[in-house]
Amino acid sequence: MDISTVTSADGSTRTVIITGEFDLGGVDEVRQALTEAIETDMITKVVVDLGPTEFLDSSGIGVLVTARTLALGRGVELAAVNATGLVEQVLQLTGALQLLQPAEETRRGNRAG
Question: How far apart are CA 113 and CA 109, in angstroms?
Answer without folding.
Answer: 6
